[in-house]
Amino acid sequence: MVEKFENMSEKQVKKENFLKKYSFLSETSHNRFIGCYDSKFTVRLVLPNFPDTEGSSVCAFHGIIPLDVQSMLKTGDSTEMLDNMLQYLDKYQETSTERVDLNVDSVLKIFKQLETVKHDHGCKIFSNSDVSKIKLSGFKAIDANFLEMERISDGDFQVTSHSLPDLGSSIELFKWHASPEAHAAAFVQILDQLDEFYSNLHTLDELCHVVEPVDIDTRTTWRIIKFNQKVFLKITLHPLQPASVVVAFLGPTAEIEYLRELYNTKLEDWDPESDVYTNLLRIFEIMAFPMRIEPGGLDDEGSQCGICMSYRDDRNKIPIISCDNEKCSLIFHIGCLKEWFMSLKDSRTFFAISVGTCPYCKQKVSSSFDELLNNLELNRTNPT
């Protein structure tokens, strides 16, 4: 325990030195940083294992243009990684096509299109002074829905970023060079097709205890909900095929085997006229899923990890793994239990399955840590 506190103190000192060296950064929450570098670049860092870069994500923007800085994570040290990224930003020169000088008629034509877009779709419009970059947001009265584009010729633009989930080949629509009005119309058309998808996710958010993801956005296609004290369901929806649902089961072996068999047996009775929530209630023969006592409120303090005694760990993960002993009520973070197994002399790993014993009841526990971590993976790409 003393060693753990010493490690925590050492990490805190390193973080203070890190923030002192990179004074443009601020820590917004645990191991999450944001800052404006050289008054030109927005930098965001998520370093769950600070100062190590394992499991980290970084992004940088020049104005509203995202830059490719993920390769900087190849190094294992946060300071070295950020030094490399700042050197890249110092040398950065925009590689977009040469700016086109617009005459008055062209400018008026673009602004007229933007007024039409605003009138037809009720969105907000932002642009820089030379109308070379445009951002449209607030489609369907949802601020998170946005479309960013950059001018590549006199009146044509190319989409550089958007708020849509991964749609596979459908996103090829945005490979065009087209007018802002055409891009906006295509974007709204796709949003219309996603109404049922977003409605299903919203119902899960409102009527279930959603434990992951912590920060819900318009791109995330899955939710992990609480089924009972030890069992969780990961529900993944296909954006364009709302009835195409994948359910993964996380929990004690006996319970999840029973639930998986029940799900597979009754899946043929899925009612396409009902929403995902209603179908799942019918399949599992329950009246409702557990809900937060206060939606959007505090974390579930009754489910702390039996090893570190906290609810969310340094990677913002919750306790989600337990042993198969029905009389043992404890639940653990994946990382904490993995470390516990590593400390045991008699723990073993066969293929991807790790085998050890519960820290309390000593019953044998087997788990695929890598598979569980993959099910809880929060990193998401920014599709364009």
Give the strand tally.
Answer: 16
SS-derived structural category: alpha+beta
State the end-to-end CA separation: 47 Å
* Count of individual helical segments: 9
How does this model look, in words?
This protein has 384 residues and is of the alpha+beta class. It has nine helices and 16 strands. It has helices spanning 2-21, 78-91, 104-121, 180-193, 195-207, 253-266, 276-284, 334-343, 369-375, and strands at 25-29, 32-37, 41-46, 57-62, 65-67, 124-127, 133-137, 146-151, 157-162, 210-212, 222-226, 232-238, 241-250, 348-350, 353-357, 364-367. Helix 3 (104-121) packs parallel to helix 4 (180-193). The longest helix has 20 residues, at 2-21. It is flat. Residues 1-6, 95-100, 295-299 and 378-384 have low confidence and may be disordered.
Give the arrangement of secondary structure elements.
Blueprint: H1 2-21, E1 25-29, E2 32-37, E3 41-46, E4 57-62, E5 65-67, H2 78-91, H3 104-121, E6 124-127, E7 133-137, E8 146-151, E9 157-162, H4 180-193, H5 195-207, E10 210-212, E11 222-226, E12 232-238, E13 241-250, H6 253-266, H7 276-284, H8 334-343, E14 348-350, E15 353-357, E16 364-367, H9 369-375
Antiparallel strand pairs: 1-2, 2-3, 3-4, 4-5, 6-7, 7-8, 8-9, 10-11, 11-12, 12-13, 14-15, 15-16
Helix pairs in contact: 3-4
Protein name: RING-type domain-containing protein
InterPro entries: Fancl, FANCL_C, FANCL_d3, FANCL_d3_sf, Znf_RING, Znf_RING/FYVE/PHD
Domain RING-type: 305-362
